[in-house]
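Let us work through a complete example step by step.
Step 1: write down the sequence.
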Amino acid sequence: MGFNMTLRLLQGGHEVVAVDRDLGIVKECASKGAVFSENLKDAISKLTGPRVVWVMVPAHVTDVVINEALSLLSKGDVIIDGGNSNWKDSRVRAARVGDKGLHWIDAGTSGGVWGLQNGYCMMVGGTGEAVKLCEPIIKTLAPADGYAHVGDAGAGHYVKMVHNGIEYGLMQAYAEGFEIMKTSPFKLDLHKISSIWGKGSVVRSWLLELLEGALADDKDLKGIRGFVEDSGEGRWTVQASIDQDVPAPIITLSLQARFRSRQDESYGAKILAALRNQFGGHSVKKA
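Step 2: predict the structure and record it as tokens.
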């Protein structure tokens, strides 16, 4: 994602100094017009103030990168975390960055692999001063009307967290509906149905368009394993619903469905089968 964001910024006329642990990726960025750097210290030395460091790394290593950046940056510089960090962590990091006289922005970023072409929806948290300074970058990354300064530090990642929780629910609803149609007494063309639903239907969406593309390539999805990971935001959304006393059964159950997808054979299902056999004699033995 960071690679495609770099390309979009370059296309928008920005100067980008690229850095990654994989120098092959950095060289590829440099071949597209970015400035090559061997490490973070080298990258920051090639920037002029006020310097903006945009961090796009997994949540569990974000502090490592930020701590290194803090040791190299100066008062007035900006750190932007565009990864999927927990909003509570972002508030703590913002305070730490602010104590050193630097600016902080947490940028909830949505767009996936299509962001280079279509732009990234940007949900930005931080001070007005910091956001105004970095707005040319953010507007280049976002499509028209696809960016908002949603609040103070942490708000960007909070909104992105809820965004992803809703995404879980939408995806699960499509999955259940299409499986019901798949097992119907009719020989339904699910690709065609996904196509027409995208034309004027109240359930049309970009997710449905993506499903249409997947079914066009493999109508029975034989090349796909039904194993679905989660990167944290769904869990955090469910926890927020508990902390804030807000019922969220759809998002919660969609997260639980992802857990079930990772089990080759559920032990819990075996317990159910064993119990049913004990009182009713209905269990199915393995061949």
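Step 3: interpret the result. The first helix runs from residue 2 to 11.
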